[in-house]
Write a structure and sequence with these properties.
The protein is an alpha+beta fold and 369 residues long. The protein contains 6 helices and 19 strands. A hairpin with a 6-residue loop joins strand 6 and strand 7. The radius of gyration is 30 Å and the shape is elongated. The C terminus is likely disordered.
Length: 369
């Protein structure tokens, strides 16, 4: 028997172990590179973010942090932004988890909506600016999946595309960053409404909730031209405005704003007299709110739940709307127009075309680098 065979066997075993270790180390390195947080640096940068820019196609939303720590919508004259939504964007980015490395080929980025610049407006760019004057954090967000929630993205200047677990709100619709419901009062808070000489108020026997038009009385001035049919229709319409007072756009108050009687409504509420002073412009009907707090207010709602009626602190509410003008939603404007005519109710606008909005990206196997 060859005496060198045991030695050769030991050497072969050692070489096999070394090869296995090297391969295992490469696999471990590869796994580490495709696991974990996508943007670990955001954990340290989150509290120092001072401005956010969201770009998609020709639309841009700019958010800025004020000195008191609140966030403002710079693209809407500094109107207050929803703090929770802004925080959710930053936290959402910082918590994205790597799931799979995809293509590095720029010519394939369009398949995942990751081309930038993107003249078609399918990709979204998110920029975070910190207090330092260095380069901002930039990421392109492409297609998204809902089940399970995942995002396709890549960094600016890096061709590597990724699929990540999680998602972020990078919407460039400014309405998604503010609270558009100015008021959502419980029905029992409404006492009266007056418009163009017509006054409507609840009957003493009206229930506290689920009120119907027959639960209101209506009176008109002798000098106003309200037909019985119009006055009857106005009962239920005007009484529910404070239960859903919202807006479609906002701007800083203009010094030359001159309201007109046909767009001025006065609501008597428990705790306040609310005057909506509006006027029609080329871009729609804009209005201001004058709030006069009165005795007898209900206790303000402390734990406000989205979608539920709530009662504000009227002094705080008056301060929050002062200096702003709001654009009336088209459907509210149509209500006013309809109340002053005997024509048929206009057809509701069609639902937006959602075809393709939830279309899934190609199978990930086809996007391997």
């Amino acid at each position: 028997m060859n005496r060198f065979l045991p030695i050769l066997a030991i050497v072969a075993a050692l070489l096999t172990l070394l090869a296995a270790w090297a391969i295992g180390d490469r696999i471990a390195t590869s796994v580490r590179a495709t696991q974990g947080l996508m943007f670990p640096e955001l954990a340290e940068l989150a509290n120092s973010v001072q401005a956010i820019e969201l770009v998609q196609g020709d639309r841009t939303v700019n958010l800025e942090r004020a000195t008191d720590g609140t966030w403002k919508l710079a693209s809407r004259d500094g109107y207050p932004a929803d703090m929770e939504l802004v925080r959710g964007l930053i936290v959402g980015l910082s918590q994205l988890q790597k799931d799979q490395a995809l293509t590095r080929k720029p010519e394939r980025h369009g398949e995942l909506n990751l081309t930038w610049p993107d003249p078609e407006g399918r990709a979204r760019l998110i920029r975070l600016y910190t207090a330092s004057e260095g380069k901002p954090f930039e990421v392109i967000i492409g297609q998204e999946r809902l089940m399970p929630r995942s995002s396709y993205l890549r960094r600016i200047g890096d061709d590597q595309a990724w699929r990540c677990r999680g998602g972020v709100n990078g919407d460039v619709d400014f309405q998604r960053w503010i609270r558009r419901d100015l008021l959502s009062l419980p029905a029992v808070e409404f006492l009266a409404a007056r418009w163009l000489g017509l006054t409507t108020s609840p009957k003493p026997t009206a229930p506290a909730t689920n009120r119907r038009p027959d639960d209101f009385v209506v009176a008109t001035d002798a000098s106003t031209a309200w037909t019985p049919e119009q006055a009857k229709a106005a009962r239920g319409v005007l009484s529910e405005w404070p239960a859903r007072l919202e807006f479609d756009d906002v701007r800083a108050a203009k010094p030359d704003f001159a309201p007109t009687p046909d767009r001025t409504l006065v609501f008597t509420l428990k705790g306040a007299i609310l005057t909506l002073e509006g006027r029609k412009e080329e871009s729609g009907t804009w209005f201001r709110l004058e709030v006069q707090p009165t005795p007898g207010a209900s206790e303000p709602t402390k734990n406000r739940v989205a979608g539920d009626p709530w009662v504000p602190d009227w002094k705080t509410f008056a301060a929050s709307v002062k200096g702003w003008e709001f654009r009336m939603p088209d459907w509210r404007e149509s209500q006013l127009e309809r109340l002053r005519s005997d024509g048929p109710e206009p057809k509701a606008p069609p639902m937006p075309d959602l075809e393709g909005k939830d279309r899934l990206p190609p199978p990930s196997s086809s996007m391997q680098r």
